Every structure is written in C-alpha cells, then in structure tokens.
C-alpha cells in the first residue's frame, strides 16, 4: 500500500513516518507541505492512500480534495477534532487526532486495506491520466457551493441534467456539478453506468424494476430514486447489452 503524507509540519511528517515503520505493507512514497505540492505528488506518484492534514498554508485539506477529479483513499490527521463530522461526510476512511496513537493508526490502516482489497481496475496509459476511466469503486470529490462530499461512484444512483449543470443523486444529497453528461459518460464504466436518455445516466446496480413502456420503450425504477424513462434507441441497446 503506497502512501503520501501531506502536512505543513516537518515534525508531524517525521513522526508519522516513524509510526508507519511498524507496518511493513505500507510504503511512504513521498511528502508534501501544502496543496500545490500535494497535487503534483499525487499526479506523479499515484499513491493509494493520503494521510492528510486539514490546516495548511493556502488551501486546506478539504479544498485540496475538492480540486482533485479523482482522489485516493484518505485518512485525515489533524490537531483539531471539530472537523470529524465533515471528514466522515466526505467519506474519509478515518480521522486521526494528533498526536497519532499507533493503535488508532493500525485501525485506520485496516480500513484502508479492506477498501483497497477490491479487484484493481485496468490502468490507463501513463501519458493520458486525465482520460483514465473511473470504476464504480473509485471515489470522487463533489463540491456544491460551501458543501463538499467524498463520494464512491457505486453509491451514485443517477446523473441528471439540470440546466447547464449535472445533478448527482446519492444518499439524500442532490448536488450540482459543472460537468456535461457527455463528459461523465466518457469517464464512467459502461458496464455499470448506462445512458438512459439525453438527460440521464443511471447506475445499473440501483435498478429495482423494469417495466415495458410506450412504443417499445422501457421505464426503470431506481432504488431510493425516481423512475427513469429510457429512450427508444437506448431501450433497444439496453435489451441487447443485458439479455442472454
């Protein structure tokens, strides 16, 4: 498991490295003192796990994550405990308050191992990282105004056009992002996410029922979500893709 330590305190980075020596399956591939340095290290080193401080010069840890199109797994490490709820709302693996205790670190790493134990996605060519496809198990950072979330794509049941934005449906949230459905369709796994019509992309794992509809089309009911009418063209494709 490769890790990047992001903290503006040299002493904090050194202490965390020392603690991680007790876990031979964890390799610290780099360090960063602030968000700009971290973005470069993430792009170059592709770590599987971030140990991320919240208070840093310039952008804080939440703002750094909001700037990433796809983020590694995250364990927050901070001297402040008042951000714990926000961190877990952002779907962080764990939240460690400094000074970090080895037992708590071991628990957090156990969560990271469990999350990373899923089958690995096929790697995209190194020369084109921006075009890398996202699997359902990948996490993305979503920001809408002052709110932000760290969302596993498997938990997103619907993408829907809303004006010049796209609305994302997960849990009870409905944030808007400045992305087109065409952009999202190109990044998402077509085995999981299906373009139902000109305005909606559905997560096939959230399908509750399928009903024949007018003119040989289909209507799909999503668990904890709305009904989606599949266009005639996409209904034909849906039957071809998912029939034996």
Poorly predicted sequence stretches spanning 5 or more consecutive residues: 119-131
Topology as a string of helices (H) and strands (E):
EHEHEHEHEHEEEEEHEEEEEH
Q: CATH topology of the largest domain, what is it called?
A: Rossmann fold
Spatial gap, N to C terminus? 39 Å
Number of helices in the DSSP assignment: 7
**CATH architecture descriptor text of the largest domain:** 3-Layer(aba) Sandwich
Structure description:
- By secondary structure, the protein is α/β, with parallel strands linked by helices.
- The protein has 2 domains: 2-116, Response regulator (Rossmann fold, 3-Layer(aba) Sandwich), CATH 3.40.50.2300; 151-242, LytTr DNA-binding domain (OB fold (Dihydrolipoamide Acetyltransferase, E2P), Beta Barrel).
- Helix content is 27%, strand content 30%.
- The chain is built from 7 helices and 15 strands.
- The protein has helices at residues 10-20, 35-45, 61-66, 84-89, 102-116, 181-187, 232-242, and strands spanning 2-6, 27-32, 49-52, 73-78, 94-97, 139-144, 147-152, 156-162, 165-170, 176-177, 193-195, 200-203, 207-212, 218-222, 227-230.
- The strands form 4 sheets. Strands 2-1-3-4-5 form a 5-stranded parallel β-sheet, with helices on both faces. Strands 10-9-8-12-11 form a 5-stranded antiparallel β-sheet, with no helix packed on it. A 3-stranded antiparallel β-sheet has the order 13-14-15.
- α3 (61-66) links the parallel β3 (49-52) and β4.
- It is elongated.
- Pfam families: LytTR, Response_reg.
- InterPro entries: CheY-like_superfamily, LytR-like, LytTR_DNA-bd_dom, Sig_transdc_resp-reg_receiver.
- Residues 142-244 form the HTH LytTR-type domain.
